[in-house]
C-alpha cells in the first residue's frame, strides 16, 4: 500500500555559466543547505540520500557521488545515484519519493546537479555511438528537425517560438536564482537574434549552466507536522522508448503520452487544462512548449501553439507554463528536471515569490531526456491526495 | 508492507573480452531471453525495469540509452537506471514494488570492463581535486588495504591464498566462470607479487558480462516459480571516501547494513569481494561463521563483470534458495574504492 509523501522543502543555487568559485561539493551544499533550512530539518532527520546527474563525462569524475558522500551527509546512510539522461532530475525526484511512498524511510534528501565548467560537455557528447550515424550538430541540431516537423504538421505561425522565449525570459527575471535575467526582452528581439538551427534562433535556446537543486521529501506525519505549506505528491510516472525505430513519432512521442496518461489517471484528473494551475515543463528550445502541451494532453494534437499564442501560458493566463523561467533561463542539465519538480512544488507551497501563480493548488513538473525518449512527471498539490 | 521475491536469474558467461559493443546489447539479448524462458514471463509481464551500468566504463555519455534496445522498448516501458552496480538497481526496483505501483520488475546490469584500462578508469572514482590527480589505481588502493590488515595481524597472506584456492575450486562447478581450477595454497603463495602484497590470485579478473534478475510481489511470485526466494531484508550504506579517515581493515557500511538485517541462520552467503582480503573483511563485518558456505559460485574472483557482479551475487544466492539447496541466503554487493559502498540482502524460501 502506497504511503503519502510530500515535499517538505526545496533549495537551489544561483545558476551561472561557470561556478569556478566552488567545488562540486560546495555547489551541492548551497542547494542542500537551502532545502534543509526550508524544510526545517537537520542531518539527523535525513534517513537516505538520492542524487542524480547527467553523464559523468560532463565533470570528468566517475560516479562522483562516491567522492561526495561526506558532503552529501550520506556517510553511514543509504545513498542512491540515478542517471536517466536529461530527465534525470525528474527521475531522481521520483525515486526519492518512492523511498518514502514504500514506507522504507521517513525523510529523504534528494539533490541533482551539473557543473559543466569542470569538463567539456561538447567533448562528452561527441563520442560516437556504435551503429549510429553521428549528427554532429549538438542538441539544437538534433531537435531542429523535430521542431520543423511540428510547425509543418500543426500549421503554427513562426512567431510562437519567439513568444515562448520572450515569456520565459521575462518570467526568469522574476526569479532571483535564474541564470539569464532579461526583464525587458521582446518578441521582436528574439526574432531578430541569430539563426542557429533553422527555425531555432539564439534567443530560443537554453543556456549552459552550473547549478544544483535539492529537496527534502517526507512522509505523511512529517508533512502534517510542517509549519508552512508542503507539496503533497499526488502521482508520479516515468516512461522510456528507444532512440530510433521505424515509425517513431519524435514530435509527439508515445512514451510521453503514456507517461501523461498514467499521471492524470493516478492523480484523478480528467481535464488537465482546467484542473492544473501551473506547469513546469522541460522546454530547452522554445518550440517544445507547444509540443509538450500537446504531448501532455493539455490540448489536442496540433492545438498547443494556440494556447501559447493566446497568452494563456503566461503568468496570469489559464495555465502559466514555466513561471520560474524554466530551462530557457537556467540549464544545469542534471538539475534541470529536478528544478521543474521543485518549482512545481514551490507553486503549491505558496513559496514562488514574485512568480507565484495566484492560488495555485495543483501543479505539474515535467522532465524529458535523450532524443525525446525519457519522460518523468509528477503532480503535486496543496492538499493531500485522496 | 508486502514482501518481494526473486523469481528468476540469468547471467552471461564471464569472459575476459567480448567482441560486442560497450552498449551491452549483445550480452543482454540472450541473457534476457534466458531469464524470460526460465520464468515463463515475457516483456509485457514486466511492470518496471531498472538497470545499472557506467558511462565511464563504456567510454561514452548516455551509454545506457542504447542498452534499452536489448529490451525492444516499444511500446514504451516504465524504466529507470542507476549509475551503480545493478544490485542498487534491484534495490530501486524492490522499492518500486513495495509502493504497490507494480507487481513485477526486471533488473539488469552490464559492463564491458575490457573496453579500457580498468584499474586506471576506476581511479577516476576518487576525489577529483585532491586524490585523482595522483592516479591511484584500484588495485594499488586495495593493496594498501591488504597491507594494513597484514601489519595489524587481522589476516595473513596464507588466509588470503586460502580464499583464492577455495573460490577457484568452487568455480569448477560454475559453467559461466572466467577462472577456476584446483590449486594449492602453497603454490599460490609461491607466485610473484602483482601489487605488493597482492598476487594475481588475490585480484578479481577483468571481466565482461551481464546479468538479469526478475522480481515479483510475494503474492505473485508463487505463480511464476514453485520456490521463490523472498527478500526478507535489503540494506545499503556508504562510507567516507577519505581513505585516511576510516579504518580500511573494517567495513563500517557493511557492518551497519548487516546490523539492520537479521543475518542469523544463514546457509549460504554470496559475497562481492574483488580482492581476497576483502572477503575476510566482509565475513567479519557480517559475523559469518565457519558454518556458512561462502560464495559457492566462486564469487568475484571467478568473474567480476563490472556493474553486474553485485547483482549476480544476489542472483547466485537466490538461485540456491529457489533450487532448494539453501533455506536462507545472504548476498552482498560492493562499489567504490576499498569497499566504500555496500549492500546486503537476505533471502529465504517463500513459504
Summarize the structure.
Chain B: This is Thiolase domain-containing protein. In chain A, 34% of the residues lie in helices and 18% in strands.
What does this structure look like?
- The complex is a heterodimer of chains A (386) and B (351).
- In chain A, helix 3 packs across helix 13 (333-349).
- With 386 residues, chain A is α/β, with parallel strands linked by helices.
- Chain A has 13 helices and eleven strands.
- Chain A folds into two domains: 5-121 and 209-225, Peroxisomal Thiolase, Chain A, domain 1; 132-208 and 234-381, 3-Layer(aba) Sandwich (Peroxisomal Thiolase, Chain A, domain 1).
- Chain B folds into two domains: 4-118 and 206-221, Thiolase/Chalcone synthase (Peroxisomal Thiolase, Chain A, domain 1); 122-204 and 230-349, Thiolase/Chalcone synthase (Peroxisomal Thiolase, Chain A, domain 1, 3-Layer(aba) Sandwich), CATH 3.40.47.10.
- Chain B is 32% helix and 21% strand.
- Chain B is built from twelve helices and twelve strands.
- Chain B has helices at residues 25-39, 55-58, 63-67, 86-98, 118-121, 138-151, 157-170, 185-190, 218-221, 252-259, 276-286, 309-322; strands at 4-11, 48-52, 79-82, 104-112, 193-195, 198-199, 208-217, 229-238, 268-270, 293-294, 328-335, 341-349.
- In chain B, the strands form two sheets. In chain B, strands 3-2-4-7-1-8-12-11-9-10 form a ten-stranded mixed β-sheet. A two-stranded antiparallel ribbon of chain B has the order 5-6.
- In chain B, strand 11 (328-335) and strand 12 (341-349) form a beta hairpin.
- In chain B, helix 4 crosses helix 12 and helix 7 (157-170) packs across helix 11 (276-286).
- Chain B is globular.
- Chains A and B meet through helix 2, strand 3, helix 3, strand 8 and helix 9 of A and helix 3, strand 3, helix 4, strand 8 and helix 10 of B.
Amino acid at each position: 500500500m502506497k504511503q503519502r509523501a510530500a515535499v517538505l522543502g526545496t533549495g537551489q543555487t544561483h545558476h551561472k555559466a561557470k561556478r569556478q568559485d566552488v567545488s562540486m561539493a560546495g555547489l551541492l551544499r548551497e542547494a542542500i543547505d537551502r532545502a534543509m533550512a526550508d524544510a526545517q530539518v537537520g542531518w539527523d532527520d535525513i534517513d537516505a540520500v538520492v542524487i542524480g546527474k547527467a553523464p559523468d563525462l560532463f565533470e570528468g569524475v566517475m560516479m562522483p557521488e562516491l567522492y561526495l558522500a561526506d558532503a552529501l551527509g550520506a556517510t553511514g546512510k543509504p545513498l542512491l545515484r540515478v542517471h536517466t539522461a536529461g530527465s534525470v532530475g525528474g527521475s531522481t525526484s521520483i525515486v526519492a519519493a518512492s523511498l518514502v511512498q514504500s514506507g522504507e524511510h521517513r525523510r529523504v534528501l534528494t539533490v541533482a546537479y551539473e557543473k559543466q565548467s569542470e569538463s567539456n560537455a561538447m567533448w562528452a557528447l561527441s563520442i560516437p555511438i556504435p551503429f549510429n550515424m553521428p549528427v554532429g550538430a549538438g542538441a539544437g541540431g538534433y531537435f531542429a528537425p523535430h521542431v520543423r516537423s511540428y510547425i509543418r504538421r500543426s500549421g503554427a505561425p513562426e512567431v510562437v517560438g519567439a513568444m515562448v522565449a520572450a515569456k520565459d525570459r521575462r518570467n526568469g527575471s522574476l526569479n532571483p536564482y535564474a541564470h539569464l535575467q532579461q526583464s525587458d526582452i521582446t518578441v521582436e528581439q528574439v526574432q531578430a537574434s541569430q539563426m542557429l538551427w533553422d527555425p531555432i534562433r539564439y534567443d530560443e535556446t537554453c543556456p549552459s549552466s552550473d547549478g544544483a537543486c535539492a529537496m527534502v521529501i517526507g512522509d505523511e506525519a512529517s508533512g502534517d507536522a510542517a509549519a508552512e505549506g508542503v507539496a503533497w505528491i499526488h502521482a508520479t510516472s516515468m516512461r522510456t522508448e528507444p532512440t530510433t525505430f521505424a515509425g517513431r513519432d519524435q514530435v509527439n512521442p508515445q512514451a510521453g503520452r503514456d507517461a501523461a496518461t498514467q499521471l492524470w489517471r493516478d492523480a484523478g484528473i480528467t481535464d488537465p487544462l482546467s484542473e492544473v494551475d501551473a506547469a513546469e515543463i522541460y522546454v530547452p528550445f522554445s518550440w517544445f512548449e507547444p509540443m509538450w502541451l500537446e504531448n501532455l494532453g493539455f490540448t489536442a494534437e496540433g492545438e498547443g501553439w494556440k494556447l501559447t499564442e493566446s497568452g494563456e501560458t503566461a503568468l496570469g493566463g489559464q495555465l502559466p507554463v514555466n513561471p520560474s523561467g524554466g530551462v530557457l533561463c537556467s540549464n544545469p542539465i542534471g538539475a534541470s528536471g529536478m528544478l521543474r519538480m521543485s518549482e512545481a512544488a514551490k507553486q503549491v507551497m505558496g513559496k514562488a515569490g514574485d512568480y507565484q501563480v495566484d492560488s495555485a493548488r495543483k501543479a505539474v513538473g515535467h522532465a524529458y531526456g535523450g532524443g525525446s525518449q525519457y519522460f518523468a512527471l509528477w503532480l503535486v498539490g496543496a492538499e493531500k491526495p485522496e | 508492507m508486502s514482501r518481494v521475491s526473486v523469481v528468476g536469474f540469468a547471467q552471461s558467461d564471464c569472459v575476459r573480452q567480448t567482441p560486442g559493443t560497450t552498449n551491452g546489447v549483445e550480452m543482454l539479448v540472450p541473457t534476457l531471453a534466458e531469464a524470460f524462458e526460465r520464468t515463463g514471463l515475457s516483456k509485457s509481464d514486466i511492470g518496471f525495469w531498472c538497470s545499472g551500468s557506467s558511462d565511464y566504463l563504456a567510454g561514452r555519455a548516455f551509454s545506457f540509452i542504447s542498452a534499452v534496445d536489448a529490451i525492444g522498448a516499444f511500446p514504451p516501458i516504465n524504466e529507470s537506471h542507476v549509475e551503480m552496480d545493478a544490485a542498487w538497481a534491484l534495490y530501486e526496483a524492490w522499492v518500486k514494488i513495495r509502493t504497490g505501483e507494480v507487481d513485477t520488475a526486471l533488473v539488469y546490469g552490464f559492463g564491458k570492463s575490457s573496453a579500457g584500462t580498468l584499474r586506471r578508469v576506476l581511479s577516476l572514482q576518487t576525489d577529483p581535486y585532491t586524490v585523482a590527480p595522483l592516479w591511484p589505481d584500484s588495485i594499488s588502493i586495495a593493496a594498501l588495504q591488504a597491507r594494513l590488515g597484514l601489519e595489524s595481524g587481522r589476516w595473513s597472506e596464507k588466509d588470503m591464498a586460502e580464499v583464492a584456492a577455495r573460490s577457484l575450486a568452487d568455480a569448477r562447478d560454475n559453467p559461466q566462470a572466467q577462472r577456476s581450477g584446483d590449486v594449492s595454497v602453497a603454490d599460490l603463495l609461491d607466485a610473484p607479487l602483482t601489487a605488493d602484497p597482492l598476487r594475481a590470485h588475490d585480484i578479481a579478473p577483468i571481466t565482461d558480462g551481464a546479468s538479469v534478475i526478475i522480481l515479483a510481489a510475494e503474492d505473485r511470485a508463487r505463480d511464476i516459480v514453485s520456490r521463490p526466494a523472498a527478500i526478507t531484508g535489503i540494506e545499503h550504506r556508504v562510507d567516507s571516501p577519505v581513505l585516511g579517515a576510516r579504518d580500511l581493515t573494517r567495513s563500517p557500511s557493511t557492518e551497519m547494513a548487516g546490523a539492520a538485517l537479521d543475518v542469523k541462520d544463514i546457509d549460504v552467503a554470496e559475497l562481492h569481494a574483488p580482492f581476497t582480503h576483502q572477503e575476510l573483511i566482509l565475513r567479519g563485518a557480517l559475523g559469518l561463521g565457519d558454518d556458512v558456505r561462502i560464495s559457492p559460485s566462486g564469487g568475484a574472483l571467478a568473474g567480476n563483470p563490472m556493474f553486474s557482479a553485485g547483482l549476480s551475487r544476489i542472483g547466485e544466492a537466490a538461485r540456491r534458495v529457489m533450487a532448494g539447496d539453501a533455506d536462507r541466503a545472504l548476498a552482498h554487493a560492493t562499489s567504490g574504492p576499498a569497499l566504500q559502498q555496500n549492500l546486503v540482502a537476505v533471502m529465504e524460501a517463500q513459504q
